[in-house]
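Section 3.1: Structural characterization of target chains.
Under the original work plan, the team committed to producing a structural model for every single-chain target entering the pipeline before any wet-lab resources were allocated. The record below documents one such target. The sequence was received from the expression subgroup and is listed exactly as submitted; it comprises 202 residues.
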Amino acid sequence: MIKVLVSDPLSREGMAILEEAEGIEVVEKTGLNEDGLVAEIKDYQGLIVRSGTTVTRPIIEAATNLKVIGRAGSGVDNVDVEAVTSRGIVVMNVPGGNTIAVVELTMGLLICLARSIPAADASLKSGKWERKKFKGSELYGKTLGIIGLGWIGSGVAQRARAFGMKVITCDPYRQEDEAESVGAELVSLDKIRRVFKDRAYQ
């Protein structure tokens, strides 16, 4: 029987999948600090974490039976990758798992900025009706600079183009045709800086 420790809260659906899997004993113990994990981890072959748990070298050294760490999220910055690599422990994550959510949030924030929504909301909640003060502007025709054209940057570029924005991007690992495929123009970081240096959003 493989023992798996879940040290951060997962959705009930996720826990159900684990609990129904054959040959796996799932133990959920959340909120453990480093000392708590050091004391707990030795009997487990698997560890599932989110962003609330930091998997440090002392934890890895105490995890004498650990074979795999599942990171329920895209980043592994809360896992000491050097320590797990030296022990031959596999680290799995979910790259792209939150891409659409972040892309949509980014577009929402752009709209909020363009339309002065937070300031207008605060004004209205304070009992004022300053309609003329918060005219806002359109995203259409504006230039959006994106630094890094990974999954999130590409998703933002595509949606920004759908709004009629011009998109410029800087990414040393992308080619011009890759940028063009999402409607962006690949430029240098210096060009992005020059374009936006003296330009406030209007």
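The first strand starts at residue 2 and ends at 6.
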